[in-house]
Write a structure and sequence with these properties.
single chain, 344 residues, alpha/beta, Rossmann fold, five-stranded mixed barrel, 11 helices, 36% helix, binds 1-O-phosphono-alpha-D-ribofuranose, binds uracil, Uridine phosphorylase
């Protein structure tokens, strides 16, 4: 019997046909009937802003927990794809006046902070999916660039999620809608995950692996930590739990992957989750690596995603046009191309 019973709505073959022009179709007919759609938490609206003009060229929507990480990523990707801002302008936080999320646009790349945990990511995804719809974006890809705890995996390792599991080990996300439980499949794009893995280089001074990710609703008790304000289990209980996770192929734990996978899949949008481990949970609970070390670690998923974006744009012949003739780091990109071809 299907995990999703009668209340799930996974995409059928006919529905996939709906997406064949590449634009994002909303599965909510109410939106079309509204005079305007206010994307409240992004400080944008379908009448107050020309969303097609502002965002119609977006191809990659990259998300991560903190505003600073996403601002850094925006600057980094700008250099990598050689994007030049119009003269006299600087990178601005488009959603600054929402005081909720931060959003930066670098040509076809949107960089958005999502906060911590399911409710925060869920609200953002509803509004970003509607933004893609209003802007008539074609085939956007959503990528979460995060941090996590490794399970048998050392700090600094980059982990690409192949399957997101909830705390009951289901490849699904549980919603409560009108007081009823609705389970939706939490499917990420397997081909995209493999493509990302192929962009890891043997010269990278760290490992990049693919595995299952456990998504929890809490950082402390929910992830089996002994160091929260409360703890009603023993160290032995914790280790048995982590070993059980490991025996089922779980390599990391974080807090957004199932909702991210479930909502993007429900919208027919290809998605991936790439996180760097901040510690190996088999060795402890406290995140105590030095700040500079953690900062460098957090660049690693960004490097992988940048390789993917550069490769995709180059394949479409769009890399040079972004920089109006000058690719800032051609040597680096050539290297990346060689690496990915070698892996293919
Ligand atoms: O680094 P980010 O993207 O915030 O993700 C991870 O870090 C937070 C916990 O510290 C959780 O949101 C978890 O999923
Ligand atoms: O252990 C960790 C580290 C980062 N993020 C998490 O959710 N858990």
């Amino acid at each position: 019997m299907s995990l999703f019973g009668g209340n799930s709505h996974s995409i059928s073959e006919e529905e996939i046909d709906e997406y064949s022009d590449g634009t994002v179709k909303l599965r909510n007919s109410n939106i079309e009937l509204m005079d305007q759609d206010i994307l409240y938490h992004l400080a944008l609206g379908s009448e107050s802003h020309d969303l097609h003009e502002m965002f119609g060229d977006v191809k990659f929507v990259c998300m991560g927990g903190t505003p600073k990480r996403m601002e850094n990523f925006a600057h980094f990707i700008m250099g990598e794809i050689g994007y030049k801002l119009p003269a006299g302008t600087k990178l601005e936080d488009i959603s600054a006046y929402s005081y909720r999320y931060s959003m930066y646009k670098v040509g076809p790349v949107l960089c958005v902070s999502h906060g911590m945990g399911t409710p925060s990511v869920s609200i953002l995804l509803h509004e970003l999916i509607k933004l893609m719809y209003h802007a008539k974006c074609q085939d956007p890809i959503f990528i979460r660039i995060g941090t996590c705890g490794g399970v048998g995996v050392e700090g600094g390792t980059v982990i690409i999620t192949e399957e997101a599991l909830d705390s009951h080990m289901r490849n699904a996300h549980e919603f409560t809608i009108l007081g009823k439980t609705v389970l939706r499949p939490a499917k990420l794009d397997k081909k995209l995950a493999r493509e990302l893995k192929a962009l890891a280089s043997e010269d990278d001074p760290y490992d990049t692996i693919i595995g299952k990710t456990l998504c929890t609703n809490d950082f402390y008790e929910g992830q089996g930590r002994l160091d929260g304000a409360f703890c009603e289990f023993t160290e032995t209980d914790k280790m048995e739990y982590l070993e059980m996770l490991s025996s089922k192929g779980v390599v990391n734990i974080e807090m957004e992957s199932t909702i991210f996978a479930a909502l993007t899949y429900h919208a027919g949008i290809k998605a991936a989750v790439v996180c760097v481990a901040l510690l190996n949970r088999l060795n402890g609970d406290q995140v105590n690596a030095p700040k500079e070390v953690m900062h460098e670690w957090q660049n690693r998923p960004q490097t992988l995603i940048s390789r993917y974006i550069c490769k995709t744009l180059a394949q479409k012949g769009q890399l040079k046009s972004l920089s109006r003739g000058s690719i800032k780091s051609p040597r680096r990109f050539k290297l990346v191309q060689q690496e990915s071809q070698a892996h293919e």
